[in-house]
Amino acid sequence: AEAKEREREWLRNQLSGDLDDNKIVDGASGERRIYRKRGEPEKKLGMQQRLPKRIVFAVDLSASMARMNGWDGRLDRMASGVIMLMEALSDPQFAHKFDYSIVGHSGARYDVPLVAFGEPPKSEDERALVVENMYRHAKSATTGDNSLQAAICATAMVAEEQADDHLVFLLSDANLGRYNIAPSQISAALTSDPSVTGHAIFVAEPSAADWLAAEMPAGRGFAAMEASSLVSTLKQAFEAAVVE
């Protein structure tokens, strides 16, 4: 994950001096480039991430996720994706670069707490408990959809603290039309804060998912109908977000 902090400055080959615009361009001159904040000692070459990337994953735990799971495995697929996310983000070489939260949304709530910022599950047992809570809530959830409110809440929550990046990933079963939620509303919620990069990933109802993804701004909507494609889609969306 390459840092893209707004305060980064590229300076001349010296410990003091003004910003050198000529060195901003990634040319082929082979000259040595050093970066630092003004007044700070020289840092190592390359890009350095001073703050973690702050991420909210808002996952669908609606009643339809549990009810239709036996038909198309949508809740199992969601759980598999969440497990892989938690395992990947627990890697020691990356853990300090990310601060993430996982919340659920359903007809009952838009902010079901699963993983809090600064408290990532560190063991298999802790990750298993997160998944257990996902299934428990989905199986007891009342009919309804809070995807829109979840997008609004996640966008506001992720921006509460400074970070190298602010990212939101909304996962939904694409059952929005039943509750008169338009893709334009989801798009507006996920793009309401210019400091936040929001994506929507639709994991069920193939026709609706493809249509909803196409209606989202370019590169912000995805459809994933298989566990393997959900993982690759999350990777694609994450890579798009961190290089924007």
TrEMBL record:
GO terms for cellular component: cytoplasm. InterPro entries: VWA8, vWFA_dom_sf. Signal peptide: none annotated. This is VWFA domain-containing protein. It comes from Florenciella parvula.
